[in-house]
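ZP: hey, is the zinc ion complex queued? I don't see it on the tracker
AM: it wasn't, my bad. submitting now with these inputs:
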Amino acid sequence: MTYTDRMTSVHPKARISALCKQFYTLGWVSGTGGGIAIRDGQMAYMAPSGVQKEQVEAEDLFTVDLDGKILEHPADPKLTLSACAPLFLAAFRLRDAGAVLHSHSQNALLATLTSPEDAFRCTHLEMMKGIAGTGYHDVLEVPIIENTAHECDLADSLSDAIRAWPRAHAVLVRRHGVYVWGKDWIQAKTHAECYDYLFGAVARMRELGLDPMVPR
Ligand code: ZN
């Protein structure tokens, strides 16, 4: 089996279960927060709300259409759809994303606290090249929106930021985390890893008194 076959032959539900376990070990989806949704044409697969993400199995996932209407409910009737659903759907619809990831990573959190008002910015860092459309000499920008008491209330401001920052593949949420997407789950995961690396590197640079916008 080729690399590409091996990476794409797994059903999206099983892929979400596997990715949630990986992201849990990174501290991105601890305490039941965060998660990932994968789109398949006009349908998408999403995790339930308020459950231990590293314990989520394929049978626990919801199938929804791109308006958020539930097409298939998990076997357990007590499960409810993730509060992130409207946010995942915004990236699917506005960016034609194939997968969207939500992380409560501390690196993302720190990026929202140490960046200037409207956006995270850095330049001349090798890992920027992992973000589609970004080169080493560019300025990488990720918009920051303000947090709300309830996750679903972020949908409008997240949609506005997606429209206003067409080169970004992520939106940071102040004192909360980040939403990251890609054309498929592989690109979304790559983007999430590169962004998280950059958020962490810039936080460390600021601790050391280095300006992430001044290459030296
Ligand atoms: Zn969240």
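AM: back. The CA atoms of residues 109 and 176 lie 6 Å apart.
ZP: great, adding it to the tracker
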